[in-house]
Amino acid sequence: MPTNMILPHRPRRNRKHPAIRAMVREHHVGPEHLVYPLFIHAGDVDVPIGAMPGCSRLSPAGLMREVEAARAVGVHSFALFPAVAEALKTPDGREAHNPDGLIPRTFKALKDRWPDIVLVGDIALDPYNSDGHDGVVAPDGRILNDETIAVLCRQALCQARAGVDVVAPSDMMDGRVGAIRLALDQAGFHEVSILAYTAKYASAFYGPFREALDSAPKSGDKKTYQMDPGNSREALREASLDAAEGADMLMVKPAGPYLDVIRALREASHLPIAAYQVSGEYAMLKAASERGWLDEKRAALESLLGIRRAGADLILTYYARQAAQWLVGG
Ligand code: PBG
């Protein structure tokens, strides 16, 4: 090409200066998009989680400190996961709807102190079930769909009475969104939202989370209820069912390896789309950063921006407090 040729198309002009780049930037991630998942337990000390540096099973006091620190940098939404004592785990997971259980007690304490925070409650039986499955397990090993839904409805009502804002069924039973909506409405909890784990895949990336809660399935795997990683049309089917059953928001999980699914749901639905950057995605970023192989701040923020660009409105991420701190200039 002759050097004196006029080049009409020079996309680099829009990148020539930080202010111009900021002016034409299409997507951004801010603290308001982040939901902070936290692990809690009934013990007095915070217990670090091996494969999730920076995360612990928090004591009640540790939880208060962490929530306060997150609020200070603009994170106001929290999803809590309980590590339940082995002695409280039963085949029917009844601790899931104990009104004096760790989760309802904690929700009340948080709402008493900060009425304006958004509390997201996980609806599934795996932390409470002696089998480590999200549903009730039959003697022959099958996960019983409709029997599980009855328990999930009680769990949702228990959390609603404790002040939860959003219940998030992560169990992948068929029909649970509609059943939970009906149970909540019949009890007068019209204002409690449902964030459906719509496309939750049977993923290897949940490993560190199961260590954190000591909730790995004792036998078998979760492939008869969580989705096959090879499928994307099936995610659209789940999305239309969850929307028809009354979900307020739809979730894709994990996030990074499933950006195409986030985009597909974004285009197919008018509902807000959430994505869960799961424990394994966090662990990968942490491990590489600790070795000096990645610049943690840049890589973590880029991973979150990528999830937003794919079409997620909100992101559940263990980086929430740290990312918000970076974003507000800390
Ligand atoms: C189970 C549940 C899991 C996660 C959230 N809720 C694990 C599983 O399905 O086995 C995983 C989250 C993460 O890995 O960060 N109801």
Structure description:
With 330 residues, this protein is an alpha/beta fold. The protein has one domain (29-327): Aldolase class I (TIM Barrel). Helix content is 38%, strand content 16%. It has 11 helices and 12 strands. The protein has an 8-stranded parallel beta barrel, surrounded by 9 helices. Helix 4 (145-161) runs parallel beside helix 5. The protein is globular. Ligand PBG is lined by residues 122, 124, 126, 134, 170, 206, 209-210, 222, 278-279.
Keyword list:
TIM Barrel; 16% strand; 330 residues; binds ligand PBG; 11 helices; two-stranded antiparallel ribbon; alpha/beta; eight-stranded parallel β-barrel; globular; 12 strands
Helix and strand succession? HEEEHEHEEEHEHEHHEHEHHEH
Specify the number of helices: 11
Given the C-alpha coordinates, what overall shape results?
globular
User: Which ligands accompany this protein?
Assistant: ligand PBG
User: In which order are the strands of the major sheet placed?
Assistant: 1-4-5-8-9-10-11-12
The percentage of residues in β strands lies in: 15-25%
| Biggest sheet character | 8 strands, parallel, barrel
